């Protein structure tokens, strides 16, 4: 069996987190975060994804690891950007039936950072028929139900019902896999396993299905230089009750490391930095922040899964951590 070079995977994680630390200011909320015409995908979405990744990496990283302090600091930064939760309450007043504030807030709540006033307001809205009947795609619905649970909101709708209406939950013909289905299935697995914390949360039929078909799907994505989706699929691979053969991890991480820019950034898709002059330049924030987050998360989960949580050959973290710890 091929042995994965865990040290190389760790180096990819270190580089990605160094880039994220250096670009933390790009995740900051601007004045438009609370305006009616604000672009959520350019404000709350990046900040929420930073928080989710850092909370997840922290969960899968030993407390004495320098990277644990790094992601804790970035998570604390994200929490401070929300006014320690106060901005969620203001969003609730502006858009009472928007679901994205609760979805982002739940990331912090899951990490132990809570705002009692917002949770009370969100629970009031969640009791309305208007909230319960919000029309969403099944994968988003599943995520919202999980977000409600993390935020202390519990209602009769069962996640199992939403799951079986998703693309993955229907066990589709494997040849129908394409980009949108790939992103949908990865998020189904993220929700079911609580972002890799509980592999046993994946139903046996889905785990068996993914064990068979995830390796060729991943290979196809990497052949197409779809680095962002490739990293999400690697998170799924490391979240399965029985991870795929180590040869798959070795091949995937060799290709991702080659695609990673020397600064640690990773493009969503595109050529390797060494292939042309355009690819050699540091990528624009919006074209690499999410894939860089996913690279860090996938690497952390891969290292933990392949080493049993003990990595004796840890690459040092040389980034500026701007202090340590998460403000309460």
Throw out a few tags for this protein:
single chain, 328 residues, mainly alpha, Glycosyltransferase, globular, disordered C terminus
Count of helix runs: 15
Range of helix content: 55-70%
Oligomer: single chain
Q: In total, how many domains does the architecture comprise?
A: 1
Strand residue percentage: under 5%
Cα(first) to Cα(last) distance is 45 Å
* Radius of gyration from the alpha-carbon trace, in angstroms: 19 Å
Low-confidence stretches: 320-328
* CATH fold type: Glycosyltransferase
CATH structural architecture: Alpha/alpha barrel
- The whole-number mean of residue pLDDT values reads 91
The secondary-structure class comes to mainly alpha
Describe this structure in words.
The protein has 328 residues and is mainly alpha-helical. It has a single domain (6-307), classed as Glycosyltransferase. Helix content is 57%, strand content 0%. Helix 2 (44-59) runs parallel beside helix 5 (100-110), helix 11 (204-223) runs parallel beside helix 13 and helix 12 runs parallel beside helix 15. It is globular and about 50 Å long. Mean pLDDT is 91; it is low at 320-328.
Task: Please sum up the structure shown.
With 328 residues, the chain is mostly helical. It is built from 15 helices and no strands.
Question: What's the topology here?
Answer:
Layout: H1 6-22, H2 44-59, H3 66-81, H4 86-94, H5 100-110, H6 116-126, H7 129-132, H8 138-150, H9 159-163, H10 179-192, H11 204-223, H12 227-239, H13 246-259, H14 277-280, H15 289-307
Helix pairs in contact: 1-15, 2-3, 2-5, 2-15, 4-6, 5-8, 8-10, 10-12, 11-12, 11-13, 12-13, 12-15
